[in-house]
Specification:
Blueprint lengths: L2 H20 L5 H6 L6 H12 L3 H13 L4 H29 L4 H8 L2 H34 L3 H50 L2 H6 L13 H16 L1 H8 L4 H18 L1 H13 L9 H8 L3 H39 L5 H25 L3 H25 L5 H22 L9 H19 L12
Helix pairs in contact: 1-8, 1-15, 3-8, 3-12, 3-15, 4-13, 5-10, 5-12, 6-7, 7-8, 7-15, 7-16, 7-17, 8-13, 8-15, 8-16, 10-17, 11-15, 13-14, 14-15, 15-16, 17-18, 17-19, 18-19
């Protein structure tokens, strides 16, 4: 057994053991919202751990390998979205959730609109969320493929097992504490790996010589920038996986400080995968698929101990992002769909049992989708586009535009998903220039919402649910 595999094996066992120990006495309140007692430190660590996942590491490195400096906006856009979440949407959502005992974004949508909005969004998120879970498992599969030659399917299955075991033990409570360990490993691993990778290429001067004649490769702002801003900013403001972590915050200060520091950290981290992707382009031209760039650097370009730690950092990134998706999907199935539509009289222990079984079902489904999906970046963009076009207008307008009605919310969801789907199918997922599926869906959702509000103009305040 090589050193890299040994480190990953022991690390995986440690994560599962820690999660099982923390979650041994957890109840439904711990599973869904960590009993609303997360302070700034835990909010920061669990948010950043969730946000630095397959897309921010393997995906962003592969993107930089292909397009160069503009790949900064992949993670940078997430940082912009999180900054808005920290100081604008997040505190308000926490207040509403705490005042009315809301556990999920579905609870909020029914409180603000209707059970129909809740049911539609719950179904959309469960289907769409499987794509982002699959991307984390795809990245884990590639890591184990590079490290020990395991087939991607087996690697995806192993990654799925690790995250399902520790998350099922205690939900948000266990993931928040396990995320502290994972975030520490990530930061140390990448801090060591980046200078060693640059040295492997030949130093900072050699980095600047990679594709030096291609001005587009080194352009910080490009057409891709607009695409990433439209694709990532809205979902990172309204993602149920992130908002539910905010529901677990003990006060507004914890939200502003914890999520705000997470945003700053994302903006700083955004340059790391870009540099690693450029290094890979310089040392490993013609690498197929580009998703292999990051694990290959860590295996071939770093000393064994540093490479093992760096691979553990990437492994942490994928697993911690996967547990954030499991939080969103399993609570949606158990709280938004099961308790609301199947068994409204279910007790907390029954809902908790369903949530744990939903964790297993979701993990198996995510592994299956990961096995048949080849392109990590393309798989990931499907989820983020769906998340943004379906949720952004109902949540933000619901918080800040009192006139927003149930009809306006339903219209925005229908128009957003339809607009995104039409552009996706008509253009093969690429769009036309800056009009990619995500911004097309957002425009359609906003227009539909505005049209309904204009038609409903008049004495509508009496028909709206009060806060």
């Amino acid at each position: 057994m090589n050193l890299h595999l040994t480190v990953l094996a022991f690390y995986s066992l440690a994560l599962m053991a820690l999660g099982l120990w923390i979650g041994r006495r957890s109840g439904a309140a711990d599973f869904f919202v960590a009993s609303r007692r997360l302070g700034p430190g835990l909010i920061f660590s669990t948010m950043l751990a969730a946000n630095i996942g397959a897309g921010s590491t393997v995906g962003a490195t592969a993107t930089a390998y292909r397009i160069g400096a503009a790949a900064w906006w992949w993670v940078g856009s997430a940082g912009v979205g999180c900054a808005i979440l920290a100081f604008w949407v997040g505190p308000r959502m926490r207040q509403v959730a705490a005042e009315h005992g809301l556990r999920t974004v579905g609870d909020y949508l029914e409180f603000r609109y209707s059970r129909h909005v809740r049911g539609i969004i719950g179904a959309l998120l469960w289907v769409g969320g499987l794509f982002i879970l699959a991307t984390q498992l795809i990245a884990l599969g590639w890591i184990l493929n590079v490290v020990v030659g395991l087939p991607k399917a087996i690697g995806c299955g192993i990654g799925g097992l690790v995250v399902v075991v520790y998350f099922a033990a205690g939900g948000l409570l266990t993931s928040a504490w396990v995320n502290v360990v994972q975030l520490t490993v990530k930061m140390v691993g990448f801090a060591i790996a980046l200078p060693l990778a640059v040295s492997w290429l030949g130093g900072w001067g050699a980095v600047r010589q990679v594709n030096a004649a291609d001005e587009a490769y080194w352009a910080f702002w490009s057409a891709d920038t607009v695409k990433y801003l439209a694709l990532f900013v809205p979902p990172f403001i309204v993602s149920p996986g992130l908002l539910q972590k905010i529901f677990g915050a003990r006060d507004d200060r914890a939200v502003r400080l914890g999520v705000g520091l997470n945003a700053l950290a994302l903006l700083a981290f955004a340059g790391v995968p870009v540099l690693l992707g450029i290094v890979a382009q310089g040392k490993l031209p013609g690498l197929v698929p580009a998703d292999l760039a990051l694990p290959t650097i860590f295996m071939q370009g770093l000393p064994a101990v540093a490479g093992a730690l760096a691979l553990a950092a990437v492994f942490s990134a994928e697993v911690s992002a996967a547990d954030a998706v499991l939080l969103m999907l399993t609570t949606s199935l158990s709280q938004d769909l099961y308790k609301r539509f199947v068994n409204p009289s279910a007790s907390d222990p029954q809902v908790l049992a369903v949530a744990r079984w939903a964790t297993i079902l979701t993990g198996v489904s995510g592994v299956a989708l990961a096995v048949v999906s080849e392109d990590l970046v393309r798989t990931l963009t499907v989820f983020y586009a769906l998340l943004g076009v379906s949720l952004f207008v109902p949540i933000v307008a619901g918080l800040y535009v009192p006139r927003t009605s149930n009809a306006a919310a339903l219209a925005s969801i229908a128009a957003g998903v339809t607009g995104m789907t039409i552009v996706h199918l008509a253009s093969g997922g690429e769009g036309w220039g800056v009009l990619t599926p995500a911004p097309a869906g957002l425009v359609a959702a906003t227009v539909a919402w505005a049209v309904v509000l204009v038609r409903e103009a008049g004495p509508v305040a009496a028909r709206l649910k009060p806060y």
